[in-house]
Specification:
The complex is a heterodimer of chains A (419) and B (441). Chain A has 419 residues and is an alpha/beta fold. Helices cover 25% and strands 28% of the residues of chain A. In chain A, the strands form 6 sheets. In chain A, strands 1, 2, 3, 4, 5, 6 and 17 form a 7-stranded mixed sheet that branches. Classes of the chains: A alpha/beta (419), B alpha/beta (441).
Chain lengths: 419, 441
């Protein structure tokens, strides 16, 4: 049976950062990367740009074969984890083979969550999570005349923009009252909506799809209101669910809630098993509850901590807790959100909106400290703002200047505080 | 892979003129719009100027969060390079960077960052106040990093001791054609003479007595000279072995102008054998033979200034050095090696002892630096042609208490003792200055 000191499952940011962290401390310990994807490592975040044609599918890889050779990492592509036999530190693969490990990292990410809508199994639809999904959608998009996108999260919105630009008539259907719910507030969402409608898209927020059926064009979509839409291309982008199907049998002992529950060092409830990234549920920065914070920078951070913990690196520091951070480019504009969108009790919200330029800024303070900052077409350094939140820096003395010029003031505080 | 150059900012010298930003914008985007500069100076004269600039991090977060593989650290230059063709403008790099080192250029809608202008940054050239400097980091490391380390791995020094650094750097520089003499002291104690029948060096090494290091080495050198082989005859001795019982033979070898390089690692006592005082131990210092109690308060005599005595032998070359100033040390080592081909070369390196001086093990360099900054020790060099001159003159010395309070061996000092030491520092400085003055005249 194959043996490895470190087994990392998954091949995106959390897994890749873990590899780096392990090799920083242990240059020689046997290290295996297992991924069900047939391709070299890539980021799900780049896929909308593969769909649009901006990124060539063979030019998005984050590591090449020579990296794995140089780092002495055994790369197993196209091999899925099927089950976990944790009492004997063994992973069972879909092909029936087994690998024993000393330390295991589950960085298996997430997959599209398919809503249980009647008829969904009768129609053909696209999702967007893997490189193959992206190349298929890219190919289908060229021929599309009327497309429907279910779900107005960032994946759906990105794809919808691509479809609009490719010349299709696009309708976005979203259950929530606003689009990009959970990422941006109502004002920002309205700006985003305006950009889409200006470019010819139709946005149906507060709408639920109740039935899907095959039609001559492709699919007929029936809404709660009774209205119907015809689509030659249907994209389901209604959210994701963590990939944890392998937690069966003995693996079921790994405690989970929405995702795999992990400690501040990314350890699961089962010895020698760690988890990081979109499949993990870790501490929030704002409270002790564990949350899903499926964003790229957090996946990288969690992966790094997991790798350091697995290799026994004494330089490890506890995970401070995740804060939501998102950046979004749409029709040449950009939106950035850092921190909690919810206003904490006793918190204070300051907004500034210039209709002429479309610049929008929203800042949330609590006890003189920043808890969240949002901008549309108002650039600020999201990394600096994250640090202002994580370091709980008192902004009370600089409040007015910060509101007037958040980027400039943020940089000054950075230069003074953590240069 | 070596260490990399970096742009250093001295806020105290900046007057906020903005020339760096104009120069950057002109170089990078062909227009003097400072908003588009990759270096951003903020703040004001009242509260000080601040800098936002890519640090070219060793562990760059912008690279690790880039979903498109558009950012990468160049192993040769250390610059984090941005590949415009791969970038998808998602701005996630600005989330990763905590230093505002990569930011949106609103004119293009794309990110922009410092690329170090291929090693000749326009901002540094443009700065009229020397507030920006291109620092050549780790020149020594880059230069000697690939040379063979001629000591065995794993020397048994005390934690925080700087002598291993000194030994390894010296032997790398001197090179493999060397015969090394290490008389009793910390250097053989750390393993230069080896363990279990194998030597601790990759060059011939011998262990003379405290009393005969210099003449034995001189004999070895003369032998090699007779058979026509060019070698460097190097001694690494302690201050006890050189200034006390070994002094007579050292002085004799210097007087005969033997072609050897004699290096003294001065930790101001017999630290290897239990921290007894030597003639190099300074006034007031606690040692195991100058204890502190009701009747005694540390050493009652001033230290002998051995390097100045060696100057009076009119050696080919005499210099003092400190491990806090390695570039200075390297310059002197080069000169000493060259001088040892002509005659007697003497290097005196001040070497703080964590164990015997009683300071935390992470403070060695700081203590060594404080010694120089207070003029407690002075860095100078002497040659017959050039006379004596300071290599790192300290114009504005710190009070000697800054040095004394950094370690435990002076903790008991009375005010009188401190003022004695301070006056001795002034006197020693005046004495060396006179010699330097004489040399100049």
């Amino acid at each position: 049976m194959e043996q490895t000191k470190y087994l990392v499952v998954g091949s995106s940011h959390a897994a890749l950062e873990a590899l780096t962290a392990i090799r920083m401390h242990d240059p020689d310990g046997s290290l295996t990367l297992l991924t069900r994807d047939p391709h070299l490592p890539y980021s799900p975040t780049v896929l909308p740009y593969v769909v649009s044609g901006r990124s060539a599918p063979d030019n998005v890889f984050l590591r090449d074969e020579s990296f794995f050779a140089a780092q002495k990492i055994s790369l197993k592509r196209g091999k899925a984890l099927k089950a976990l036999h944790s009492s004997r530190n063994t992973a069972e693969l879909a092909d029936g083979s087994e690998i024993t490990y000393e330390k295991l990292l589950l960085a298996t990410g997430a997959s599209p969550a398919i809503p249980p809508i009647p008829g969904i199994d009768q129609v053909s639809y696209h999702v967007l999570r893997t490189l193959d999904d992206a190349t298929q959608l890219h190919a289908a998009m060229k021929a599309s005349k009327q497309a429907v996108v279910m779900g107005a999260g960032l994946v759906g919105m990105h794809a919808a923009e691509n479809l609009v630009k490719a010349g299709a008539k696009v309708t976005i259907v979203e259950m929530a009252k606003q689009l990009t719910d959970g990422y941006f507030d109502a004002t920002a969402a309205a700006l985003i909506e305006q950009a889409f409608t200006d470019n010819g898209a139709t946005i149906l927020t507060g709408s639920r799809v109740v039935k899907l059926a095959p039609s001559a064009v492709g699919a007929t979509i029936t809404l709660e209101s009774g209205a119907t839409l015809e689509a030659d291309l249907l994209l389901v982008a209604t959210g994701v669910k963590p990939n944890i199907d392998f937690l069966v049998g003995e693996g079921a002992a790994v405690e989970r809630d929405k995702g795999i529950l992990v400690s501040e060092r990314m350890q699961t409830s089962v010895p020698n098993v760690y988890a990081a990234g979109d499949c993990a549920q870790a501490k929030s920065f704002y409270s002790d509850t564990k949350v899903m914070n499926a964003i790229l920078p957090d996946a990288a951070e969690q992966g790094r901590i997991a790798g350091m913990a697995m290799a026994g690196d004494p330089g490890i520091k506890d995970y401070p807790g995740g804060i939501p951070v998102n950046t979004y480019h749409f029709f040449g504009r950009h939106a950035i959100s850092v921190g909690l969108s919810k206003v904490p009790e006793g918190g204070e919200v300051v907004t500034r909106f210039d209709e002429a330029s479309g610049r929008y800024l929203k800042v949330i303070f609590h006890e003189g400290r920043l808890t969240g900052i949002y901008g549309v077409n108002e650039f600020f350094d999201a990394g600096v703002m994250s640090q202002l939140i994580l370091r709980r820096i008192d902004l009370a003395p600089l409040r007015e200047r910060f509101l007037a010029e958040p980027m400039k003031t943020g940089r000054e505080i950075m230069s003074r505080t953590w240069r | 892979m070596g260490a990399y150059n970096t742009i250093a900012f001295d806020a105290a010298k900046c007057d906020g003129c903005g020339d760096c930003m104009t120069a950057c914008a002109e170089t990078k985007v062909g227009a003097g719009d400072s908003a588009r500069s990759r270096i951003q100076i903020g703040g004001d004269a009242a509260n000080g100027f601040e800098l936002a600039l890519c640090r070219q991090c060793g562990d760059p977060k912008c690279v690790s969060v880039c979903p498109a593989g558009a950012l990468g650290k160049d192993a040769a230059s250390g610059v984090i390079a941005w590949d415009a063709s791969k970038c998808v403008d998602c701005l996630l790099c600005t989330v990763g960077c905590a230093y505002a080192g990569i930011a949106l250029d609103e004119a293009t809608g794309r990110v922009a960052k410092c690329d170090m202008c291929e090693g000749n940054p326009a901002c540094v050239t443009a700065c009229p106040h020397d507030a920006l400097k291109l620092v050549t980091t780790s020149r020594i490391y880059n230069e000697v990093g690939n040379w063979e380390d001629l000591f065995a791995p794993g020397l048994a020094g005390c934690q925080g001791c700087n002598t291993e650094l000194l030994m390894r750097h010296t032997l790398r520089r001197v090179g493999p054609d060397t015969v090394l003499a290490t008389p009793p002291g910390c250097v053989p104690g750390m393993g230069s003479v080896g363990f279990n029948g194998t030597t601790g060096t990759k060059v011939p090494v011998f262990h003379p007595l405290l009393t005969n290091t210099a003449p034995m080495l001189a004999g070895v050198k003369r032998h090699y000279k007779r058979i026509g082989r060019e070698i460097t005859a190097l001694a690494i001795a302690g201050d006890g072995g050189a200034s006390d019982v070994g002094f007579q033979s050292l002085s004799g070898a210097a007087e005969r102008n033997e072609q050897i390089l004699f290096m003294v690692v001065d930790n101001e006592g017999y630290m290897n054998t239990g921290m007894q005082r030597s003639s190099c131990t300074p006034y007031g210092a606690w040692t195991s033979t100058t204890p502190v109690g009701e009747a005694t308060h540390g050493k009652t005599q001033d230290a002998k200034n051995l390097p100045l005595i060696m100057v009076n032998h009119r050696c080919e070359y005499v210099a003092t050095a400190s491990t806090a100033y390695m570039e200075d040390f390297y310059d002197k080592l080069d000169k000493a090696i060259a001088a040892s081909k002509r005659g007697f070369a003497y290097l005196h390196v001040y070497s703080p002892c964590t164990t015997g001086w009683r300071f935390p093990t992470d403070q060695n360099m700081e203590v060594a630096r404080k010694a120089v900054e207070t003029n407690f020790v002075m860095l100078w060099e002497y040659s017959r042609a050039g006379g004596l001159h300071f290599t790192r003159p300290v114009d504005d010395p710190l009070p000697v208490t800054e040095y004394l309070k950094a370690m435990g061996r002076f903790r008991h000092l009375s005010d009188d003792q401190i003022s004695h030491i301070q006056s001795k520092v002034v006197e020693n400085l005046g004495f060396v200055k006179q010699l330097a003055h004489v040399a100049k005249a």
